[in-house]
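Progress against Task 2.4 (sequence-to-structure conversion) is shown through the following example record, which the project officer requested during the mid-term review.
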Amino acid sequence: MQQYLLARATPWRATNRQGAYFMQGWSITITLETAQRRDAPVPIDKEAILGYWDTGSFGTNWVKHLVETGKASEHLRGGYPDRYVALARDVLPLIDNYGIAHDDYVRDVKLHRDRIAACPPEQAVTVEVWDLS
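Structure tokens generated for the chain above:
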């Protein structure tokens, strides 16, 4: 599982030899809000956010692995945002203690440890992934 957690990414503004920009990375938010509420034109409930961070281009492999193994479902795709739903028991151990932040390209990490600790294992959480390009 560790291989899915490490983001081996290119720098945020890297270019290829022709000068075209590479994918810059992802902004990831874990929240207690449902996917449907996140779609609604209402203010975001900031108290429902369990954590967020920015990561490199491979920084979503862990959530893709959860989908592949049937532990998460994909609700929206396209990068603006991608949205997944999973149980807290499958997501929170991966982010607690910076389990997914073992790469130089993970930055701006904010985990609300009190909210994570209070979250029941059977609680559905939404993983929202925004393309930073």
